[in-house]
């Protein structure tokens, strides 16, 4: 049986408040990216006269009623997660062959782009980087304090979006059923971002002997890796040639390098940030701090 955070259990009490947006209202579609849940487009809503993003589940074959209801339940949970640093969900397009979530459009793309497109962003002030980390912590802390708690479970820089003033908007949380169906529609192939996801995945997720029910400590590990990436502007485990190499290295206790070559001496409160980071990515989930304590220390 799926767990509550996966969108199909203990959600019967939700009221039917999720707006349904007709497909014909979405015009001028432009491809943006492809992820574990499907394909993302930029579009115009013809009535609202505004730009939106649509996350589409590609349906090569019909989806059963139960699966479709699970998708709608997940989307409804996302719609209820309203907070400054969480992407706003406007509604769903629920057509037989076109099933998508409609969200606000983020003009500055993802944190991944901000950090690693150094020709576009040659210098990033420490104040901006620390603000980004603080806003991510606030957003995830909000999700964890929902009833029931909502786990992101796929936190990475590609899923941290940025608005016109470079404020954080966390996206793609709670989309487990969307990912499962999207992957199953791809002829059994692994999701295209598998390597990127493994970078942020805690060791207990791929070590069967330590498997446990997913909890908030998964997101904390991912956040610690993101901290390192934001402060270093480097890709974690960048020398690894494949996801399996990353997994074996992490199981042996390897983590990103916190030396001066990666984390320069001029980082404000450098030692405190390194301490928070290393606490967050410790192998024992029970020893990782909560987002509330992390937020307070930031």
UniProtKB/TrEMBL annotation:
Belongs to the protein kinase superfamily. TKL Ser/Thr protein kinase family. Pfam families: PK_Tyr_Ser-Thr (PF07714). It is a peripheral membrane protein. This is non-specific serine/threonine protein kinase. Coiled coil: none annotated. PANTHER family: RECEPTOR-INTERACTING SERINE_THREONINE-PROTEIN KINASE 2, SERINE/THREONINE-PROTEIN KINASE TNNI3K-RELATED. Its EC number is 2.7.11.1. The keyword Membrane applies. GO terms for cellular component: cytoplasm; membrane. It is found in: Cytoplasm; Membrane. Keywords: ATP-binding, Cytoplasm, Isopeptide bond, Kinase, Membrane, Nucleotide-binding, Phosphoprotein, Serine/threonine-protein kinase, Transferase, Ubl conjugation. PROSITE patterns: PROTEIN_KINASE_DOM (PS50011), PROTEIN_KINASE_ST (PS00108). The keyword Ubl conjugation applies. InterPro entries: Kinase-like_dom_sf, Prot_kinase_dom, Ser-Thr/Tyr_kinase_cat_dom, Ser/Thr_kinase_AS, Ser/Thr_Kinases-Pseudokinases. The lineage of its organism: Eukaryota, Metazoa, Chordata, Craniata, Vertebrata. It comes from the Eukaryota. It comes from Umbra pygmaea. GO terms for molecular function: ATP binding; protein serine/threonine kinase activity. It catalyses: L-threonyl-[protein] + ATP = O-phospho-L-threonyl-[protein] + ADP + H(+); L-seryl-[protein] + ATP = O-phospho-L-seryl-[protein] + ADP + H(+). It is an enzyme of class 2 (transferase).
């Amino acid at each position: 049986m799926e767990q509550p955070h996966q969108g199909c259990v203990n959600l019967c009490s939700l009221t039917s408040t999720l707006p349904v947006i007709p497909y014909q209202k979405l015009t001028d579609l432009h491809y943006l990216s492809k992820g574990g849940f499907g394909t993302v487009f930029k579009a115009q809503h013809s009535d609202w006269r505004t730009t939106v993003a649509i996350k589409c589940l590609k349906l090569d074959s019909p989806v059963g009623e139960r699966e479709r209801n699970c998708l709608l339940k997940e989307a409804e949970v996302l719609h209820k997660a309203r907070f400054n640093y969480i992407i706003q969900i406007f509604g769903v397009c629920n057509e037989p062959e076109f099933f998508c979530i409609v969200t606000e459009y983020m003009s500055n793309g993802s944190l991944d782009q901000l950090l690693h497109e150094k020709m576009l962003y040659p210098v990033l002030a420490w104040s901006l980087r620390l603000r980004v980390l603080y806003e991510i912590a606030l957003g995830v802390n909000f999700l964890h304090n929902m009833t029931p708690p909502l786990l992101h479970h796929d936190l990475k820089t590609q899923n941290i979006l940025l608005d016109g003033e470079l404020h954080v908007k966390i996206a793609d949380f709670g989309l487990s059923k969307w990912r499962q169906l999207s992957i199953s529609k791809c002829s059994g192939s692994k999701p295209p971002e598998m390597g990127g996801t493994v970078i942020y995945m805690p060791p207990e997720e791929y070590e069967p002997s330590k498997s446990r029910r997913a909890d908030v400590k998964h997101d904390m590990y991912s956040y610690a890796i993101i901290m390192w990436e934001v402060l270093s502007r480097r890709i974690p485990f960048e020398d690894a040639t494949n996801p399996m190499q990353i997994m074996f290295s992490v199981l042996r206790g390897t983590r990103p390098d916190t030396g001066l070559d990666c984390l320069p001496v001029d980082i404000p409160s450098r030692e405190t940030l390194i301490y928070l980071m290393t606490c967050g990515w410790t192998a024992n989930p029970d020893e990782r701090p909560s987002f509330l304590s992390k937020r307070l220390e930031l």
